[in-house]
Amino acid sequence: MPLINAQYNPKGWFKNGHFSTIYSAKVRQGPVIEFQRERITMNDGDFLDLDWAMTKTNVGPGTKSVVILLHGLEGNAQRSYIRGQASTLLNSGFDICAMNFRGCSGTDNLRLQSYNAGK
What we know:
The protein is α+β, with helices and mostly antiparallel strands and 119 residues long. 19% of the residues lie in helices and 20% in strands.
């Protein structure tokens, strides 16, 4: 993958990383995405919830791509940054699978182990 030599210069208050984080989490409203939830049972008896959104474009089987979106620590697939990215990708013709880590989909996980993105 080529390296891109680019500068990011946020404007005004967004130069402060704390402000950017708070704004994204508390103020920014993402678009409404109609996700369809699929629950997958894991080998250890727990589950993962996958939130799917499909483009409206009718194309032949095997011709569309799926992007998997992963939320951040203590996030979920309904966070504004996930919905914003999903909207952009849907408008570009990609289907979306937004994965909720264990215990992050609004339902407690069934095992004592909390989520770990590495497992």
